[in-house]
Amino acid sequence: MSWLESISMTTTVILLFLVVIPILTALFLYFYDKRQKQHAILRNYPILGRMRYVLEKTGPELRQYLFDDDNDGEPFNREEYLHMVMPGKYLNNVIGFGSKRNFDEAGYYIRNAMFTKQNEEMRVDNETLIHTMRYRIDNDNLFSRKEHREEIPTMPWLLPEEDAIIIGPNCEHPFHVRSLLGQSGMSYGALGENAITALSKGIGLAKEAWMNTGEGGLSPYHLAGDAHIIAQIGSGLFGFRTEDGEFSWERLREKAEIPQVKAFEIKLAQGAKMRGGHVEGEKVTEEIAKIRNVVPYTTINSPNRFKQFSDYPTLFDFIEKIRNHSGKPVGIKVVIGGKEDAEELASFMDETGKGPDFISLDGAEGGSGATYQDLADSVGLPLKSALMLLDDALKKHGVRDEVKIIASGKITTPDKAALALAMGADLVQIARGFMISVGCIMAHRCHTNDCPAGVATTDKNLQRGLVVEEKKYRVTNYILTMREGLFRIAAAAGLDSPTKLERHHVVYKDERGRVFPLDNLGESYR
Hints:
Radius of gyration: 26 Å
Number of strands: 17
Oligomer: single chain
Shape: globular
Helix content: 25-40%
Strand order of the largest sheet: 6-15-14-13-12-9-8-7
Structural class: alpha/beta
Largest sheet: 8 strands, parallel
């Protein structure tokens, strides 16, 4: 065969693939769509209809990467997303030129002091350095980026032992907390084993931080690192149930004997859903089913509430039994719907002398792997309002010193954490910030088991993309940057510790420029 014949044959093949096959495909789809009965647009306009569905399918990605402004988009805009990604990868959250916040909008601001604190004046334990890994950019061009990873000793930014937040001081085994932030509840099953392992190892490497198991039960992957554990008990009793679905006191004692388990949390509700959890059957592998004591590959819907209690007297009795059997602190996870809810809880604690050792307060803006739009959008109060209501009620009834408040709900940066502490929280916990630190790209596919980043999936092939030894350092760096930022904000406010942030350190500016101290906002605003 001559070279001319070879070129001619090659050209024919190329034309076949580039012209003939696409035309035949288009004709097939045209007549197929004309005859189908499901979609009116495709039936009337086959070609344009196909283009419409392609644009509709790719619309979220196009908006996220091309069309949305840096400060547009929910639940997190591009700017907020980068404030979670960059600290994890580069151990740095320094920006240039200026803030992208719209200062004409209403919002909260932390009051700066005329005479700030020096680093050496801060009450912080930075003696034992943490060795982590971060990336350094060597070259950053339009079509390529070259960077290398390096080991770096970093300060831990922990509370000194004498300033530790003590949860359950009267328990046999109190929980001494020296990290002001930890990981909120995320179950093994909602997240895959690689993600949970990376979180456990990264949190453990950061020292003194905790991770909440979520309602899916305590897995070996939660214990893979040296993280403190808050073992959550949901209404489905996963990990704490007998085969017939009753509460197992034997399983509770088994968990309590694990040194890493520091406390137990009874989940009444979370911000994104005022009901029990939901996991699609394809995510319930045999291993997950064994941990939860359920049938493999069966969709799990937890009951809306516990069968073990139905009011405050029976709830408090259940708390007392768990505390006595385990010897460890017991808390509740709640969402506040109004002032009356906070008042009822606080007054009953006052009347009985009983109650939880801590309250995990989730705001309506909290996230979830799977919920319903109506619950996520409109049920429960956002964190800032709920936090002040709960803090006020506990103080009014004289029980504030008996219980610690752990706040959660879109707390992803140090300034947001500082606001929560000032509004009444003792500690803060984060879920989606940690998900993003291990690779989440906000694809909004958590409920499908098709997470492209290998985070919210139990699919082995997709999980291979998440390398634990890489991502664990992102988690560590995110925690360290958050903790350092809290101390930096405290110093700017003239305080030697973030634990001393109070409401008078925050003001609210409305859209007209008027400034109000938080205590003067009034009941109508809250």
